[in-house]
Amino acid sequence: MMQDSLVLVTGAASGIGRATALRYAERGARRIACLDLHDKGAADTVALLKQMGAEALAVHVDLGDVASIRAAYEEAVSWLGGLTAAAHIGGYSWRGETLDVTPEQWDQVVNVNLRGAFFCSQAALRVMYAQGRGAIVNMSADAAFHPVHGFAVQAAGKGGVALMSQTLAMESARRGVRVNTVSPGIVKVQPTGVSRPDSPALRPVEGQAPPPPVDTLPDQTVPGRYSTAEEIADAVVYLSSDAASAVNGVILPVNGGGYFSLQY
Ligand SMILES: NC(=O)c1ccc[n+]([C@@H]2O[C@H](COP(=O)([O-])OP(=O)(O)OC[C@H]3O[C@@H](n4cnc5c(N)ncnc54)[C@H](O)[C@@H]3O)[C@@H](O)[C@H]2O)c1
Prior knowledge:
Blueprint: E1 6-10, H1 15-26, E2 31-36, H2 39-51, E3 55-60, H3 66-80, E4 85-88, H4 103-131, E5 134-139, H5 152-172, E6 177-184, E7 187-188, E8 227-228, H6 229-240, E9 251-254
Parallel strand pairs: 1-2, 1-4, 2-3, 4-5, 5-6, 6-9, 7-8
Helix pairs in contact: 1-2, 1-6, 3-4, 4-5
The structure holds nicotinamide-adenine-dinucleotide.
């Protein structure tokens, strides 16, 4: 499915990003560049990929820093020797009390999740336009489409990722490049990458039941369970592959059927 492809994955040190890098290797990718802020996690992913017979390289990147994104892309693409597919997965989910969010927290979360995805996409498009082919997959989140208490900043960033990607898809459609978005519901991961910034605790509202803790979210979903990182990875790899050659600009929810209610 990805035979001989040259692939770049951000967030490859952990969770969905690592699962995606491994899936690319299973599907025959030749070279995989693993970008992350967490060097040890990225190196561990590279070791796993090499055991599977793929060529792999760990590249340091801070997705909150555009200069770092550009430098990492330059290093990765020059090693890859081209770019068949780019999966921009790095970032995090962040839940915090709206009244207590600071400008610094907004900047940190939105810069990594949204600005990072844009400038990674820009770097990928520069290479892919020159090649006349390529596929980009960006990572949104269902919290952008189903309101969840405390996820306003997350919704702003991840909703922005999805809509920005549709514009890029339209711009790139006649240049041989596709840009799609995956929107996971709730995914059980064992994070080994960087930890997210502290969240301001949700405030109780007088006369209202407190919002339930986030780890009970799966109960509110149709399948009643977490998705696995591998289930998200399968969707990313599909959208990157020629099997999806006419699929462009979609926001693909991978959530087992969504949420039962928005009363969360
Ligand atoms: N787990 C979920 O339920 C869920 C749901 C919806 C969307 N997502 C999205 O999926 C993506 C992957 O998340 P995950 O669940 O696998 O979590 P994770 O913490 O296991 O993986 C996130 C990876 O991103 C890296 N990262 C974080 N900040 C970075 C930065 N500034 N620069 C470079 N790398 C950075 C981390 O080091 C880590 O390797 C994220 O964008 C997240 O928002 C996750």
